[in-house]
């Protein structure tokens, strides 16, 4: 479903990724863990064409994206970016809801404007998604009338409204108060358990990672230092860098 090969990413003189390879099968849940600043968020943004990369390729459901001229992308490059973003939904650390729109309006905006879905169909789909995330009674609420956990759940519904083939979650609970983390993780858990959605998650929630992942990728300083099943990574890590990271986070 998602194939990354030889990914190189520079920020000026900083060479963050030096040839990352990673495969995500259709229906697979891959969780990315690692220290803050290790490149997890940037990697997800490269997969969804929100960050440009200098070398390598990202292939999503057959659509290929290579290094792109950031200032002057060709028509073919722009179309590849558009196709990848249609196939892959993304949920960010910040909720990024439109403040002047209700929860329901936030959810229907992209299907109506981008997919040209009939508004009544988009509204029906949005209400179904709101029921699924237990926010049916908040359809007419504005973001500033919602808790952080409720806003993030609306953001997840907004991404799902585009009917993506895969979902990316970039540390979706990092901006939440501790008591709100569980309600967001519950929505993600339902998505992967009941829908079989191809999912890539960057998270600091180690218990959640161990529970839902089919495969765990450990990032450190822009490298994938180890990949394996949750049992392999959390019980018998092979590299010292993985052991050092887990020792720090599991003790905290």
In summary, what is this structure?
The chain is α/β, with parallel strands linked by helices and 252 residues long. The protein is built from nine helices and ten strands.
The overall strand count is: 10
Mean pLDDT level: 93
Distance between the first and last residues' Cα = 35 Å
Which overall shape is indicated by the principal axes computed on the Cα atoms? globular
Strand content: 15-25%
SSE pattern, N- to C-terminal: EEEHEEHEHHHEHEHEEHH
Strand numbers in spatial order across the main sheet: 6-7-8-3-9-10
Sheet of most strands = 6 strands, mixed
Secondary-structure-based class equals: alpha/beta
Separate helix tally? 9
Low-confidence stretches: none
Helix content range of the residues, please?
Answer: 40-55%
Global Rg: 18 Å
Question: What does this protein structure show overall?
Answer:
By secondary structure, the protein is an alpha/beta fold. The chain has 9 helices and 10 strands. It has helices at residues 40-47, 75-87, 103-113, 119-132, 148-160, 178-194, 206-212, 230-235, 240-251, and strands at residues 2-11, 14-24, 29-33, 55-60, 63-66, 88-91, 166-170, 198-202, 215-220, 223-228. Strands 6-7-8-3-9-10 form a 6-stranded mixed beta sheet, with helices on both faces. Strand 1 and strand 2 form a beta hairpin. Helix 3 crosses helix 4 (119-132), helix 3 (103-113) packs parallel to helix 5 and helix 5 (148-160) runs parallel beside helix 6 (178-194). The protein is globular, with a radius of gyration of 18 Å. The protein starts with a strand and ends with a helix. The model has no long low-confidence stretch (mean pLDDT 93).
């Amino acid at each position: 479903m998602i194939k990354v090969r030889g990914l190189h990413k520079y920020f000026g003189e900083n060479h963050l990724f030096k040839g990352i390879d990673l495969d995500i099968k259709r229906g697979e849940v891959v969780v990315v863990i690692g220290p803050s600043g290790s490149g997890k968020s940037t990697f997800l943004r490269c997969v969804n064409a929100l960050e440009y990369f200098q070398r390598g390729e990202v292939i999503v459901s057959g659509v290929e994206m290579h290094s792109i001229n950031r200032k002057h992308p060709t028509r073919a490059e722009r179309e590849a970016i558009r196709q990848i973003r249609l196939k892959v939904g993304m949920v960010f650390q910040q909720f990024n809801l439109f403040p002047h729109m209700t929860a329901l309006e936030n959810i229907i905006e992209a299907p109506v404007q981008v997919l040209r879905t009939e508004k009544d169909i988009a509204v029906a789909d949005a209400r179904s998604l709101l029921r699924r995330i237990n926010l049916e009674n908040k359809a007419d609420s504005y973001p500033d009338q919602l808790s952080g956990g409720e806003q993030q759940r609306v953001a997840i519904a907004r991404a799902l409204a585009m009917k993506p083939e895969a979902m990316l979650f970039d540390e979706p609970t990092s901006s939440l108060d501790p008591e709100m983390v569980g309600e967001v993780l519950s929505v993600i858990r339902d998505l992967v358990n009941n829908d079989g959605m191809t999912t890539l998650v960057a998270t600091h929630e180690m218990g959640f990672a161990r529970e839902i992942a089919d495969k765990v990728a450990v990032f450190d300083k822009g490298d994938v230092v180890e990949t394996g099943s949750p049992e392999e990574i959390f019980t018998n890590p092979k590299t010292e860098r993985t052991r050092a990271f887990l020792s720090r986070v599991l003790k905290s």
